[in-house]
Write a structure and sequence with these properties.
The complex is a heterodimer of chains A (458) and B (260). In chain A, 65% of the residues lie in helices and 1% in strands. With 458 residues, chain A is mainly alpha-helical. The relative contact order of chain A is 0.09. The model of chain A has no long low-confidence stretch (mean pLDDT 87). Chain B is of the alpha/beta class. The chains are: A mainly alpha (458), B alpha/beta (260).
């Protein structure tokens, strides 16, 4: 007869921990679990092997084994001339190398572009590694000082600005100039700064601000702006290079980096604006976001390039590349805003309440408690946008700005390099370049996610 | 009035205020729903009050009104001599004086335990980092988890997290502490460690308002127990009488449900 025990008491010592069975561990365990676990898995594994077999060898054959690596013209890449099948024609890329990097930037001034590339790399690299010191200083240098220097180096600076916001008043201080600086412009600038500070002092009591500190912070903003304008206005004796002469990787990077660095802070502001309690701020943000998300980027670029000049007063012109830059940046900001909003919505109400109960004001609460968590949550979305933006830059081709891809396509028409594989070589090369940048961003974002993850411990 | 005069008048107001917290005819609505109905309550300095009642009775809403996490629509709330209005400055002042502990801890998961504790002293009180860290370690030692300072909230047990939450609130050196069901989300094994912390805080003379169903705690430390239902204070008495001789029918029913 079966006996059922009702009472049970475990022995005083708990059971020791035992290792998992051998066939679930190590390489064999892994293969069993991931490759040959079931009939379906075996089939998928075989299919995978077949796909690799079908794709990789032909690619290697074209780009490496049958490729031509050296040469001086189309004859070196023609199968009938060299008597063997020809894959990629790499000499074409070497021949166009300078155009790919600099566009039509004057050869004598290319050192300036190189300096900008080098400075960017030197400032960005340490910023990406969390262990290195001086983060604050480094960030200030990269986001604050570097763009100004890059601007001066790339364009030549010496903007020769004549009026600052007060041109419409007819107020004229004359055009006397000193070291490339117009006296009239700077008088106007100081006047505007004082007026803005005055308005700030008048308005701030309605928002619960303190007069002195508001005026001080407005003047500080103008001081920073003033320094930036001063640097770009000064004559350093650099040869001016019009943006029409820029091209290739230079343009791609300028547009992408500007778009990326502008879109994140703007996107955050717009996302916060959209959740604001003030209807004016809220609806302004909504309209902005929905407008820019609703129009295709091509339309924006087209409008900015060909229609905007029709609406602006006659003598008022904006540089073509700048117009595209602004278009791309605003466009990207709207997308970014929605990504960030997604993160904000994932933060539980308790976090806000915890912060408020401690007496943190809303600005601090957002900066110290909510945004760090929200942004961390949407890193994949943010980087997704960055990558999309990086590749979208190539759309500027339709407004006659020659980015990396544009330059390559222009080079295809060069009869000196007309071979059956030039086109594939060019596109293949462009693909590799874009891939390196995008994959780099992707890997970095994944490392960042891992580093910031606090959830696995528990 | 200059800032100095204002500060002086504030401090005299605080010194002169008879009660730590005063609610006078407080009413609140969520849309059309009348959550708080004419609440009158005066909490003396150093007084410990336990609020109980069925869920939806408005007890949490009431204490959340005291640090303006909820806005009341009628009546007056005076905290430490400062009347709560829409004036943001006053709300800030009150929140600096009032610490709060939540049911779900609401620790900041992206910050370490130490950073959780130093955040408000550094950014609200503008305390130097070193000083804030010393203060935080002092209170973490008091809630008996100084060795966890470098960890993240997700690595701690519920009871430990709640003790951190208490330490975090204490780092602002509040005069009044609010507890909103601090043990309701905890595993049974961890309730005691949190209650012990609260008892020792009570023994130091902190003014406390606790929403809780821990009747043992109420018996041990409360000066007064308040029973709320349907947005009203139904009964209020010192604990021994409250438990042994409840007057209102609703209170008796409630006590019979929770005291088995």
């Amino acid at each position: 007869m079966e006996t059922r025990t009702v009472a049970f008491v475990a022995p005083p010592e708990l059971r020791p921990q035992e290792p998992a069975p051998a066939n679930t561990r190590g390489a064999i365990g892994w293969a069993r679990a991931h490759l040959f676990g079931s009939v379906g898995q075996v089939l998928l594994t075989l299919l995978g092997i077949f796909v690799v077999y079908a794709v990789v060898p032909p690619l290697l054959k074209f780009f490496v084994f049958e490729a031509v690596w050296t040469g001086t013209g189309r004859d070196d890449c023609l199968p009938e001339k060299i008597g063997r099948p020809v894959g990629a024609c790499w000499p074409f890329i070497w021949a166009k190398w300078n155009q790919i990097l600099y566009g039509f930037y004057p050869a004598a001034e290319r050192w300036r572009v190189n300096t900008v590339y080098l400075m960017g790399a030197l400032l960005l690299a340490p910023l990406l590694f969390p262990k290195l010191p001086f983060k604050r200083l480094n960030a200030l240098a990269f986001f604050g000082i570097y763009p100004v220097i890059a601007f001066v180096l790339l364009t030549g600076g010496d903007l020769d600005m004549r009026t600052f916001l007060l041109g419409w008043t007819g107020l004229d201080f004359g055009l006397a100039s000193f070291a490339g600086l117009r006296v009239g412009f700077w008088l106007q600038f100081i006047l505007v700064a004082l007026i803005a500070a005055g308005i700030g002092m008048l308005v701030c009591p309605f928002f619960g601000g303190e007069r002195g500190s508001v005026a001080k912070s407005i003047l500080k903003v103008f001081a920073v702006l003033g320094v930036i304008l001063l640097v770009v206005d000064l004559d350093f004796g650099l040869e001016p290079v019009e943006t029409r002469q820029w091209g290739g990787l230079l343009v791609t990077l300028v547009i992408a980096v500007t778009g990326i660095t502008v879109s994140l802070p703007f996107g955050i502001l717009l996302a916060l604006g959209r959740r604001s309690d003030y209807p004016l701020v809220k609806y302004a943000s909504i309209i902005f976001i929905e407008f820019w998300r609703g129009v295709p980027l091509i339309t924006v670029l087209f409008f900015a390039t060909y229609m905007l000049p029709l609406f602006l007063p006659g003598r008022f012109t904006i540089d073509g590349l700048l117009r595209a830059l602004v278009g791309v940046a605003l466009f990207a900001s709207a997308y970014m805003a929605e990504v960030v909003r997604g993160g904000l919505q994932a933060i539980p109400k308790g976090q806000y309440e915890g912060a408020m109960a401690l007496g943190l004001r809303s600005g601090f609460m957002m900066r110290l408690v909510v945004l760090p968590q929200a942004l961390k949550l949407v890193i994949p979305g943010i980087v997704n946008n960055f990558i999309g933006l990086f590749k979208d830059t190539t759309l500027v081709l339709i407004v006659s700005i020659f980015d990396l891809l544009g330059i390559l396509r222009a080079s295809f028409t060069d009869p000196a390099w007309a071979t059956p594989t030039t086109l594939f070589t060019g596109f293949g090369f462009a693909g590799i370049v874009y891939f390196v940048f995008c994959y780099g961003m992707s890997r970095y974002s994944m490392a960042l996610e891992k580093r910031l993850d606090r959830s696995h411990r528990h | 009035m200059s800032a100095q005069q204002q500060a002086a008048s504030n401090s005299t107001a605080q010194g002169a205020a008879e009660y730590a917290v005063e609610l006078i005819g407080v009413n609140k609505w969520y849309g059309d729903f009348h959550v708080l109905r004419d609440i009158n309550l005066s909490v003396g300095r150093g007084e410990r009050i336990v609020v109980c009642g069925p869920s939806g009775s408005g007890k949490s809403t009431m204490i959340r009104c005291i640090n303006r996490l909820e806005e009341h629509q009628k009546g007056r709330i005076v905290v430490d001599g400062i009347e709560l209005t829409n004036d943001l400055k006053r709300i800030d002042e009150v929140r600096r004086e009032v610490g709060m502990v939540f049911q779900h801890f609401n620790l900041f998961p992206h910050l370490t335990i130490l950073e959780n504790c130093t955040l408000a002293p550094m950014w609200v009180r503008k305390m130097p980092k070193k000083e804030a860290e010393d203060l935080a370690m002092h209170f973490l030692a008091k809630v008996k988890i100084p060795e966890q300072a470098a960890k993240y909230p997700g690595q701690l047990s519920g009871g430990q997290q709640q003790r951190v939450a208490i330490a975090r609130a204490l780092c602002m050196r509040p005069r009044i502490m609010l507890f909103d069901e601090p043990t309701s989300a905890l595993d049974p094994e961890m309730v005691k460690e949190v209650l012990d912390t609260m008892v020792s805080l009570a023994n130091e003379g902190m003014t406390m308002l606790c929403v809780t169903h821990e009747m043992g705690f109420a018996r041990q430390v409360a000066d007064r127990v308040i029973f709320m239902d349907a947005g009203q204070i139904i009964e209020m008495n010192e604990p021994s009488t409250f438990f042994s001789n409840p007057q209102h029918e609703r209170t008796r029913l409630f006590l019979s449900q929770i005291l088995h």
